[in-house]
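User: I'm new to structure prediction. If I give you an amino acid sequence, what do you actually give back? Let's try with this one:
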Amino acid sequence: MKIAVLGAGSLGSVFGASLALADNEVHLLSRNSSYIQAVNENGLVLIEGSQRRTIKAHATSDPKSIGEVDLLIVLVKSFDTREAIVSAKSTVGPMTAVLTLQNGLGNEEVINDELGEGHVLAGRTFVGGDAIAPGEIVAGLKGKHTTIGELNGMVTQRIKDISAKFNEAGIETQVSTTINSVIWGKLLVNVATGAIAGITGLPYGLLYQVPEVHEVALKAVHEAINVAEALGIELAVKDPEEIWQSAGAGLAAEFRTSILQSLDRGSISEIDFINGAVVRAGYQVGISTPVNSTLVGCIKGIEAKNKAIAQH
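Assistant: Good question. You get back a string of structure tokens that encode the predicted 3D arrangement of the chain. For your 312 residues, that looks like this:
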């Protein structure tokens, strides 16, 4: 299968490397010139536990150099979705499946808006990735599942084929007929740890050692569950403690949440599409979300500080 990963950051690299190892033709799309040079010259290095593997892969910033693909995996940050999809339209042919595994809410609608109906598949993954150097990624694959599905809930041949390819690559994948519930389920996990890790600067190992952090996380998740239920979303898990525990299960102690990784780079985060999405949805259904509102405000403050430092 010819596959392009749009947004080959930490997580995109884990997916790309795994699929390349399973004999797929994989192209990694990135705007990071250091990453592109490192991958093309030295290979993509995947580190999992004590195992270190180097995978031959093709990285580029030019979608036109790839041509049309069978599968486009979208893993750019949510605030970049529209621009990235527009730039990568040359990779999308009449039969191309476009699978978003992004965090947060609203990406499926943006991609549909740009590409039209029929291309877009949705999914969420608990696989982890953390870049320690350009082209060197610590991967969290073991015991971490991925769920994908058609937006209309049908189990089509293409969704079965993609699931099979992922499983062959060691990415534990299942097909769902209720993908919207899956999207909200992953959102709850992101709500549990993302912003709090970004504010405290703590990786998973230390995050779970602070009782006060635990208490705030449960309150944030509880608010999000209330909002989901008011929207009529059928959640598979409704226990905030179970959601909190699942967020860090199986990940190395040094792993950082996506929001923390962004802030550590001095970048803006996806807070508007995670906790911010909960706040907006809560407003629509009349559910108060003070904890999530506070977390959003704190992250916005850190982003503003990083911007001010960069300008000086």
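You can read the tokens as a compact description of the fold. Here is one thing that stands out. The mean pLDDT is 94.
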